[in-house]
Design a protein that fits this description.
four-stranded mixed β-sheet; alpha+beta; 381 residues; Butyryl-Coa Dehydrogenase, subunit A, domain 1; four-stranded antiparallel β-sheet; 10 strands; globular; 15% strand; binds flavin-adenine dinucleotide; 12 helices; Butyryl-CoA Dehydrogenase, subunit A, domain 3; Butyryl-CoA Dehydrogenase, subunit A, domain 2
């Protein structure tokens, strides 16, 4: 990857790597077991300016782009995927659309607090009956005087347990279906009528917060509409193009951790009188992992670079997420296999990586949905 990084990105990468190795790697197992992140991690991310990495400097952020975010997320996720998804969602699913679609007043109100991590953001699209088919969402927002009144239930909300700002996709045009009649609303976390559910017990990324969020007659001023009325589905999809680059970076980070663990173990473990890494069968596994990881990273870099240039990046982001998430799972599987029985226990962190990798093929659009995005793009030309 280094050939694609200029001096600034190399510095950002080195900073993220030393932070992740010093502060996240030693905590990753604890995060997984306790089902939440250490409080100190939020503060450390603030000190390094990572909450506001892609928020412009005039709003207190670092003013960097998607390439920088990708580089940081690979390093953070290599150490702790629970921290990685928390940071990815906050930056790419909340900070980014607020910067892109927000009014000046909305930006001034929220971006400085998102940059400092005083407020953590959550993205509420999915509902019990609207997962891959997000356009089927039913949460409603009716206009009443100067307010919207929001009613409905969102599920699987990352950062739900600690969010100070919810970006909620709602139906504002009664009687419409599918993508029409959906709007994006900024809902402050302390609004009366919000009920955050219990943390979900997950297979992996257990240190991250995933909850249901119920909205019962939640009133928000009409000025909290993000973008135009009934333009929310476009905002949701554009935002996911960016978010998918973040999840693809997460996948590369997890995959790299799997490869590194496999290399280390294959040098240490001896069978038949020699390190197992001397067997060609093991070497070929390592070679395949390394090759796929390099290819995945290049797809991530391409998508991030295109998005930074303002080019349409749906296909590139979907390709990066599809390939990188498959690669993460391939690497997790091979690494666990190389660790033998020990890999199936918690003696080694490859067991956690195996569980963490799985989600990358599901959230922000399952692999089948990425294939649909790619197929639509290539057949429409
Ligand atoms: C830990 C976690 C965190 C999450 N965080 C958030 C969040 O912060 N905000 C948010 O809004 N959502 C979040 N999600 C929701 C996530 O994006 C959805 O789970 C995902 O989009 C899939 O939706 P679903 O679970 O309803 O699966 P379904 O849509 O029911 O899909 C089930 C299966 O059917 C397949 N499928 C569906 N439609 C098609 C089709 N047309 N063609 C072929 N196959 C198809 C899918 O690929 C999948 O394999 C999170 C989920 C999890 C598990």
């Amino acid at each position: 990857m280094d050939f694609a990084l200029n001096e600034e990105l190399t510095l950002v990468r080195d900073m993220a790597r030393s932070f992740a190795e010093a502060e996240l790697l030693p905590r990753a197992t604890r995060h997984d077991r306790q089902g939440t992140l250490d409080r100190e991690v939020f503060e450390k991310l603030r000190e390094l300016g990572l909450w506001g990495l892609t928020i412009p400097e005039e709003y207190g952020g670092a003013g960097l782009g998607n390439l920088a975010l990708a580089v940081v997320l690979e390093e953070v996720n290599r150490a702790c995927a629970s921290t990685g998804v928390t940071l990815s969602v906050h930056n790419s699913l909340i900070g980014a659309p607020l910067r892109k679609f927000g009014s000046e007043a909305q930006r001034r109100e929220w971006l400085p607090r998102l940059s400092s991590g005083e407020v953590i953001g959550a993205y509420c699209l999915t509902e019990p009956n609207a997962g891959s088919d997000a356009g089927a969402l039913r949460t409603s927002a009716r206009i009443d005087g100067d307010d919207f009144v929001v009613n409905g239930t969102k599920v699987w909300v990352t950062n739900g347990g600690w969010a100070g700002l919810f970006l909620v996709y709602v139906r504002t045009e009664p009687g419409t279906s599918r993508a029409k009649g959906i709007s994006a609303l900024l809902v402050p976390g302390d609004s009366p009528g919000i009920q955050v559910g219990k943390p979900e017990k997950k297979c992996g990324i257990r240190g991250s917060s995933t909850t249901e969020v119920e909205f019962s007659n939640v009133r928000v001023p009409r000025s909290n509409l993000l973008g135009s009325l009934n333009d929310g589905f476009r905002i949701a999809m554009d935002t996911l193009d960016g978010g998918r680059i973040g999840i693809a970076s997460q996948a590369v980070g997890i995959g790299r951790a799997c490869l590194e663990a496999a290399i280390k173990y294959s040098k240490e473990r001896e069978q038949f009188g020699r390190p197992i890494g001397e067997f060609q069968a093991i070497q070929w596994k390592l070679a395949d992992m390394a090759t796929r990881l390099d290819a995945a990273r290049l797809l991530v870099m391409k998508a991030a670079w295109m998005r930074d240039r303002g080019e349409r990046s749906s296909q590139a982001a979907a390709e990066a997420k599809l390939f990188a998430s498959q690669t993460a799972n391939f690497c997790a599987d091979e690494s666990l296999q190389i660790h033998g029985g020990a890999g199936y226990t918690d003696h080694f962190h490859v067991e956690r990586l195996f569980r963490d990798a799985r989600i990358t093929e599901i959230y922000e659009g399952a692999s089948d949905i990425q294939r649909i995005v790619i197929a639509r793009a290539i057949t429409a030309r």
